[in-house]
Q: What sequence folds into this?
């Protein structure tokens, strides 16, 4: 039986209640399978690559870069961190003396308290640096070793380094699809039952993709994780 | 036959020297098609290597017992796994691998006659000399042996509601997990490759040291003849030997005559301290009856002293464990968390003392001023503010028309006690500078001491507020209870105690009349009592939160993971938080292999046509990395403590207690301080145990022994001696 109904348990509700759904783009599934013993399932909100997307990304990146540099420059100007030879540098000086920049300096100047400006600039710097557009979640299945989930989050607090969790095959009790109520809908999601642990591990916890994707991943995991002999017997029996 | 089972796994260290000379690949064979590469021995014959591995030539001159390697790596011997950079023409065993590496090639090309697809798992070897290691589970910064003991304690304390609640929730969850187990339809028997993972983790930890050992001994396997030394080289060699002998002789003299005396004296001092500590600890832990609170449960100072003493008792034991580490291979990783814990607590204490000296000298220099400030604060906030607020309450506060007679009575009562208390404080005032001086002096034992003392001083000097709170809460609670039961009477009902429910009841007319009159009376008197109660409850809450601040400061001084944070910045690989795999694109791998003259099958693309032995290869690369411990795990204990405090004080239960005038129980000290005890063992080692441990340290003599061996006269005796000690350690 592919789907085991096991709803309304506190265990699952705990895991799900603070997950957010990304509304702006439905998650996609990409499969990478360089050998039958290894497979990587990537679910991401990043739309499939196209020219417009690429252009938008490039412009966004430049915008971020410009914003970052301007915030950095303003910060250094206000705290007068730059030594004189640097500000007099032939490349930098015209920029620093240009009217728009001077207007910006005046705008962020004295009426605004220095600490407030510094805090705002730091916030802008951080947002420019750390803002992530898409959520990407991966499931890596390695036969003989185990499976690994990883998540990079969207937004400011999603870290650049994916949060990974590796579960050795020996510890995997089962991989199954479960359903749970979430608001006014029923969600199907993939869980890994880990030996000797109280919490189940939810795969793709932030995106919680649709049942079609979840089922495809589930089939893939079953086929890839276990050696052929055991699987064959299971199917026949 | 190899149709379905021909999946091979190769573990390959990325930092192995890459040369394109012929070589023999040596490593562990965990199962038939599961190999772990340790080293490539250049320019040797595979047959010679095989025999050398069997008779142990390659592990000769090992600094520590070789059996330890096999025991921890889970294999009985190292094997020849295959050949490196050998032409196809050479016949090899079918289970051997052929490897092509070279300076320009990041990833080796591996082929094996029996495998149809291969997983190459690349890893970077942790350096045991720098105490780097990997582990499947995150490193535990807290000592994990006291879970049970704390659980044992909790039923004794009994009254702790949230503890009980937590236990019930855990039990519920456990039952859910039990149910969950029933969902797995069949139990799969794990294959040999799956079971090998813990062993492989050990093998990765050992990889560096073993490769060094093997490479050191390669010269023993024949093929290369040693060049005889020139005269100048011989002169230099004998000169260095003479110098080394001289240094060694002096060192020997020192270790033989001076060091034992110093050591003995030190141990004596340590033991006498230990006795004193034991004595003090018994006093601190003494309880009149098993149920009663000990001194350390009441006073923060006693608790602080106890923590320091416990640490002092634990240090020698930790140190002994760490010293014994030196007698073993560097790759044995079991004591690394101990190392971090030991130095963390040492560093914290040193920090504490440094801050304490600064603080103490400041307090001592300004003791009169500090004393004046404190007595000012005391009289302003605990006497005058209270007096003014009570007088305010007595005169219809905020337009609230209270019952003036009752308000006068209550206010006079409290004012009278406050007067008495303020005269007591006046008595204390001349002594206060001395007390402050004493507190300042105590801070030379660490900044945590004055903080604890101040916390205690605060609770002593606000005893009157505490008692006011208790008294007014009691009055309020009684009144509320009476009101509730009279309200039932008013409705013609009563509370059935036996069944714990509300029953209807036929009252007589006079009963009803008196009850209703009393109800009205008490109801109109209630606001007066409420305002007094609220006044003292707020004062009490303010004091509790102040003490919570002190406690948080204390726990920061006693438990901050300073050393761990430093390590996280300096060398994250010393704080393993688990492992992580990364699937590499086989694309660039293929490109790398294509331009080689060697016929590496570029069939890694055609991975969908499976299981035909004629297509021998589908290669796959994963990189194994050790992920450092994240900060959340480092501060896990703090989060836990914060959670506990939040659950205790911000729970609806406490709000209900406050509203109904029930006594709000302060958080159990033991609960709050489990954080601080998390780095200490649940049961401290006794004096005798410590004596044994300290004396079990190997004498420093044995380190010099293997070098002194050339001295012919007593060489035999010494080496015997050394051998005995080594087997003992």
A:
């Amino acid at each position: 039986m592919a789907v085991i109904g096991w709803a309304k348990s506190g265990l699952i509700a705990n895991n799900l209640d603070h997950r957010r759904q990304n509304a702006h783009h439905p998650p996609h599934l990409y499969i990478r399978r360089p050998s039958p013993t290894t497979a990587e399932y990537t679910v991401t909100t990043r739309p499939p690559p196209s020219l417009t997307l690429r252009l938008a990304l490039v412009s966004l990146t430049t915008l971020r870069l410009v914003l970052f540099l301007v915030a950095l420059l303003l910060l250094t100007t206000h705290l007068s961190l730059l030594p004189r030879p640097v500000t007099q540098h032939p490349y930098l000086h015209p920029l620093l003396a240009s009217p728009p920049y001077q207007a910006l300096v005046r705008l962020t100047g004295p009426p605004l308290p220095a600490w407030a400006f510094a805090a705002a600039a730091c916030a802008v710097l951080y947002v420019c640096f750390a803002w992530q557009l898409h959520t990407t979640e991966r499931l890596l299945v390695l036969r003989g070793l185990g499976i690994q989930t990883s998540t990079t989050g969207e937004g400011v607090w999603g870290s650049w380094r994916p949060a990974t969790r590796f579960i050795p095959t020996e510890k995997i009790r089962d991989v199954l699809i479960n359903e749970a109520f979430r608001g006014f809908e029923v969600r199907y999601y993939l869980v890994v039952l880990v030996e000797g642990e109280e919490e189940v591990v939810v795969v793709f916890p932030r995106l919680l993709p649709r049942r079609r994707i979840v089922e495809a991943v589930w089939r893939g995991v079953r086929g890839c994780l276990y050696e052929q002999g055991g699987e064959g017997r299971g199917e026949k029996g | 036959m190899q149709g379905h089972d021909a999946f091979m796994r190769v573990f390959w260290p990325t930092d192995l020297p890459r040369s394109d000379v012929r070589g023999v690949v040596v490593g562990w064979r965990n199962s038939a098609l599961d190999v772990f590469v340790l080293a490539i021995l250049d320019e040797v014959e595979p047959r010679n290597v095989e025999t050398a591995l069997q008779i142990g030539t390659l592990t000769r001159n090992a600094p520590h017992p070789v059996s330890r390697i096999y025991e921890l790596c889970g294999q009985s011997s190292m094997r020849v796994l295959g050949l490196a950079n050998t032409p196809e023409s050479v016949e090899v065993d079918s289970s051997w691998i052929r490897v092509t590496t070279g300076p320009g090639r990041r990833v080796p090309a591996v082929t094996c006659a029996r495998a149809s697809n291969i997983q190459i798992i690349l890893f970077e070897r942790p350096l045991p000399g720098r105490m780097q290691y990997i582990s499947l589970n995150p490193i535990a910064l807290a000592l994990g042996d006291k879970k049970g003991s704390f659980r044992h304690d909790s039923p004794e304390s009994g009254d702790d509601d949230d503890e009980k609640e937590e236990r019930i929730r855990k039990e519920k969850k456990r039952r859910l997990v039990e149910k969950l187990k029933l969902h797995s339809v069949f139990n799969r028997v794990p294959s040999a490759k799956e079971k090998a993972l813990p062993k492989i983790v050990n093998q990765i930890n050992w990889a560096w040291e073993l490769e060094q050992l093997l490479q050191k001994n390669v010269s023993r396997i024949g093929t290369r003849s040693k060049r005889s030394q020139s005269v100048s080289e011989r002169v230099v060699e004998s000169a260095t030997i003479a110098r080394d002998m001289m240094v060694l002789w002096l060192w020997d003299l020192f270790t033989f005559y001076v060091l034992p005396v110093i050591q003995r004296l030190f141990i004596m001092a340590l033991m006498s301290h230990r006795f004193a500590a034991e004595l003090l600890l018994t006093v601190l832990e003494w309880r009149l009856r098993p149920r009663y609170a000990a001194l350390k449960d009441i006073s923060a100072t006693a608790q602080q002293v106890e923590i320091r003493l416990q640490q002092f008792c634990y240090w020698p034991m930790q140190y002994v464990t760490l010293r014994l580490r030196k007698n073993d291979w560097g790759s044995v990783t079991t004591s690394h968390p101990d190392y971090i814990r030991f130095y963390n607590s040492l560093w914290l204490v040193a920090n504490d003392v440094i801050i304490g000296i600064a603080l103490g000298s400041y307090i001592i220099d300004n003791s009169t001023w500090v004393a004046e400030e404190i007595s000012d604060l005391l009289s302003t906030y605990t006497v005058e503010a209270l007096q003014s607020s009570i007088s305010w309450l007595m005169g219809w506060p905020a337009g609230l028309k209270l019952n003036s007679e009752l308000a006068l009575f209550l206010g006079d009562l409290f004012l009278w006690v406050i007067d008495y208390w303020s005269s007591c404080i006046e008595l204390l005032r001349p002594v206060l500078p001395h007390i402050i001086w004493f507190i300042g002096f105590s801070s030379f034992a660490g900044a945590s001491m004055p903080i604890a003392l101040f916390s205690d001083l605060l609770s002593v000097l606000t005893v009157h507020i505490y008692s006011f709170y208790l008294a007014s809460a009691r009055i309020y609670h009684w009144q509320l209870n009476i009101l509730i039961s009279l309200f039932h009477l008013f409705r013609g009902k009563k509370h059935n105690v036996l069944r714990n429910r509300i029953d209807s009841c036929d009252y007589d007319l006079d009963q009803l009349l008196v009850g209703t009159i009393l109800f009205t009376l008490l109801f109109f008197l209630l606001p007066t009592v409420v305002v007094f109660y609220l006044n003292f409850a707020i004062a009490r809450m303010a004091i509790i939160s102040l003490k919570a601040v002190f406690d948080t400061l204390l726990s920061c001084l006693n438990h901050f993971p300073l050393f761990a944070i430093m390590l996280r910045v300096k060398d994250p690989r010393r704080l393993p938080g688990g492992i992580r795999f990364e699937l590499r694109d086989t694309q660039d791998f293929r490109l790398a292999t294509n331009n080689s003259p060697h016929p590496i099958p570029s069939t890694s693309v055609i991975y969908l046509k499976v299981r035909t032995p004629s297509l021998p290869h589908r290669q796959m690369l994963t990189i194994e990395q050790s992920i450092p411990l994240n900060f959340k795990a480092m501060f896990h204990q703090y989060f836990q403590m914060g959670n506990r405090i939040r659950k205790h004080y911000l729970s609806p239960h406490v709000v209900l207690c406050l509203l109904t005038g029930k006594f709000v129980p302060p958080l159990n000290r033991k609960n709050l301080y489990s954080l601080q005890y998390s780095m200490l063992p649940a049961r401290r080692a006794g004096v005798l145990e410590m004596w044994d441990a300290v004396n079990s340290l190997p004498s420093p003599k044995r380190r010099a022994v293997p070098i002194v061996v050339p001295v012919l006269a007593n060489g035999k005796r010494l080496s015997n001696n050394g051998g005995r000690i080594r087997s003992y350690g």
